[in-house]
Amino acid sequence: MNSQKRRRTLLILGMAICLLIALGAARAAAQDSGVTVIKNATVITVTKGTIEHGSILIRDGKIAEVGKSVKEPAGATVIDATGMFVTPGIIDCHSHIAVEGGVNEGSVAVSSMVSVGDVLNPDDVEIYRDLAGGVTVAHVLHGSANPIGGQNQLIKLRWGKPASDLKFEGAPLSIKFALGENPKRSNFQPPPGIPQRYPESRMGVMDVIRQAFVDAREYKKTWDEYNRRVAAGDKTAIPPRRNLKLDPLVEILEGKRWVHSHSYRADEILQLMLLADEFGFHVHTFQHVLEGYRVADEMAKHGAGGSTFSDWWAYKVEAYEAIPYNATIMTRRGVIVSINSDDAEEARHLNQEAAKSMKYGGLTENEALRLVTINPAIQLGIDKRVGSLETGKDADLVIYNHPPLSVYAVPQKVFIDGHLYFDREKDLAMRADNEKERQALVEKEKKAAEAEKKPEEGKGKAGAEKKPGAGAPPSKEAQPKPPVKPPQDATAASAGHE
Amino acid sequence: MHRDHKYTPKNYLAILAALALAALVALPAPGQEKSKEKPRAAEKTYAIRGAAITSLAGPTIKKGNIVMRDGRIVDIGADAAIPADAEVLDADGLEAFPGMFDALDQAGLQEIGAVAATVDAHELGEFNPQLVAAVAVHPASEHIPVIRAAGITHVVSAPEAGGFGGGGGFILGQASVINLAGWTIQEMLVRRSAAMVVDWPGLNTRTFDFATFSVKEKPFADVKKEYDKKVQELTDFFDEARHYQQAVEKGSAQNYVRDLKLEAMIPVLKGELPLLVLANRAHEIRSAVEFCDKQKVRLIVGFAGEAMKERDLLKSKNIPVILGPTMRLSPDEDDPYDKFFTLPSDLQKAGIRFAIASFGLEFVRRLPQQAGNAVAYGLSYDDGLKAITLYPAQILGLDKDLGTLEKGKIANIMITNGDPLELRTEVKYLYINGKPASTDNKHRQLYEKYSKRP
What we know:
The complex is a heterodimer.
Chain A: H1 3-31, E1 35-44, E2 50-59, E3 62-67, E4 77-80, E5 85-88, E6 90-95, H2 125-131, E7 135-140, E8 148-151, E9 153-156, H3 163-166, E10 173-178, H4 202-231, H5 247-253, E11 257-263, H6 266-279, E12 283-288, H7 296-302, E13 305-308, H8 326-332, E14 337-339, H9 350-359, H10 365-370, H11 374-379, E15 397-400, E16 411-416, E17 419-423, H12 424-458, H13 461-466, H14 475-478, H15 487-495
Parallel strand pairs in A: 1-4, 1-5, 6-7, 10-11, 11-12, 12-13, 13-14
Antiparallel strand pairs in A: 1-2, 2-3, 5-15, 7-9, 8-10, 15-16, 16-17
Helix pairs in contact in A: 1-12, 4-5, 4-6
Chain B: H1 9-26, E1 45-53, E2 61-69, E3 72-77, E4 87-90, E5 95-98, E6 100-105, H2 133-136, H3 143-148, E7 152-157, E8 171-179, H4 185-188, E9 189-199, E10 206-209, E11 214-217, H5 220-250, H6 260-269, E12 275-279, H7 282-295, E13 299-303, H8 311-316, E14 321-323, H9 339-350, E15 354-356, H10 367-376, H11 381-386, H12 390-395, E16 413-416, E17 427-432, E18 435-437, H13 442-451
Parallel strand pairs in B: 1-4, 1-5, 6-7, 9-12, 12-13, 13-14, 14-15
Antiparallel strand pairs in B: 1-2, 2-3, 5-16, 7-8, 8-9, 10-11, 16-17, 17-18
């Protein structure tokens, strides 16, 4: 059998498995009546205290009631969560899951015209894996190769739904900026024959951003003038030429698009805030912001949030003064802080990463849990919808078997919009079936291969020589061997953690 | 323990000068009694009083004492007597555990991943058995106090495969077991050579090409040919080393030219030094086992993501594994989402000896979190603790010295305010090699400095 056929079969096999998982999720979603009651749990609302032996009523995707006891409508799905802990769904303020292909349009220094929302991949298994870690909302960002990067996409982890249904409806628009080593390409070699791209210094990074906003202002002026004339009834007004690169920057100037800037060093964090003041816009969050602890007062004054790592450091020079106390210092100085993942694996235990801030600097349990729930919701402008367990909010929640800030807490059930999207029990039950199905498909494939073997040999050798991939290994073996270091290191040191 | 001292003439002069200076300083001034001089050799006795002790060598002692001298635990128990001259830590309300052991990382061999000048963890060339991690461990690395503050008192510092896109290497060199405290490597060394690290080749049809920044596909037949060639090269190298060993053992010095690479292989061939083979896929594990079987050398499998697929083989040959982080994702999307969280527990049930290690540098301090997640997904708590204390010591043949709190063992102890696998637990005090070790580090210092910003 030739490699192409093999590849095709593997693709079908892969798709079949994905379909199986998706069907599982769909089945789970189909079961609920729209009304669910979770009772006898420790309900950690985050914003309104913790209720021992509490209950939650979910109706039409929203939290209808939270309290010591709630109405139990007839026909409701009732979950007895005795001994369990319910928290709001985890919100990951910095993710790169569910993206088809690369996250960097790195060929230009300003790539504001491209959008992550155009390349969502709903079949990315990382959606399911993060969901299983309690994540319900992810801010999927463009990469950090450019001082002004692409447009980001906020998603809910509605596994099994098409790309368009992943998008978080009504959230503020969002864009990526990046400062420091990544946009100046310190740790990247351009491929042979490709010239190095401006900028290569922090001076240049800030220059690129300033020039872009000078251009955006001029562009905005032409549109303002046009709109003024149209409003005044001038029928001869000709609309200016659309500039897809500058449109998003105008949205920033108008406060419609929120800036989330990748950053490390304190000086670059300060410089971007000064530049934002100069042009009258607002930096909503600094992402990574590993030296935020050095300019926390300035960030608080500007109103910029800080979205950082728990304890990652030393993977590059600008991360050498990163400290695990960063979240605590920023919090204590009035900055809204979140802990993010930047990595599909890290996202699965953001509750654990938040918990470390109790050890590093002594945040309270509530302050720690805020780092991955209501605080990122505020930073993303979605705190009226998600981030806490309150009446009227989206029913995005996690049921843990242990207190959520414990290393032993394992998500048992994860709800989004009131639907059960992850159920550990079902996942475990499905494994045997999946394996059986897989084996059956492999057997079928083997038989088909044998049947094909003879006619193919008859085709003559020319064809076979053209395709030397005969006997290609199963796709599993085709994966590159994981580096000795954890994959996260790899991303950091070279492929460029974003 | 360390035979690598070489007294070069230059060193001799320095030593002579130092001795002369010391003699001058030591000369009693007129009228002074010589007896007032403190002998340098006598080490202080240290003791921990009133801690809840989880020794991992018996039942938990609700309230007990630990006494240490000359680097070793000399007494431990509810009734252990504290000598009058001991420097005592009152650990009332605190808990004592064996210090944690990270069974594979690059502590001291690297400072900043992206800066080549600070990286001494990998070398050029395929066969480098003569390289020894301890030679390049930087005792003043900022990572060491940071790792130590997490309760990790000793580690296996090991050479790693080549950098990104690099040729890699095959026999990477010798891993060293070091205590994470000491002014020089000599003070830190526990065992200079603890394992010979080998990066087993994979059958990778897809490789990332850094020149073009894209994934390149190679036909399987070619990849298999390259793989077979590499394994043959390793076989040839072992044969060569065996001939050399015979020459060394049976011939006279005139009959062979000293070869550092082949010389370094002799302890492996004698079965004194285990091969620590980094192998992830089942076929890599299988061929490593077959190879070591044929060569009659001791094997420890490192990383071992697909160990469960080869559980029968590993069990039948009693081969231990040092597992990579539990917090990682499977490259195979149809694997269970919790595959590596459950792997320690799966191996435990299958009767395979294992330890859990960080396999890196920046996340070494997450070692207890790695074990904690294994416990969350089914491993017993006791095994969770042992996976990062006793089991690595056993696997590396160091359990006479490390791994539990027992009389006669090296006094590497962490004192915590709770369960060391839990995220909020603080390591309050440390003893390394029988002496108090600081929990202060760069991160804490920056925290204190910037907390005080007016």
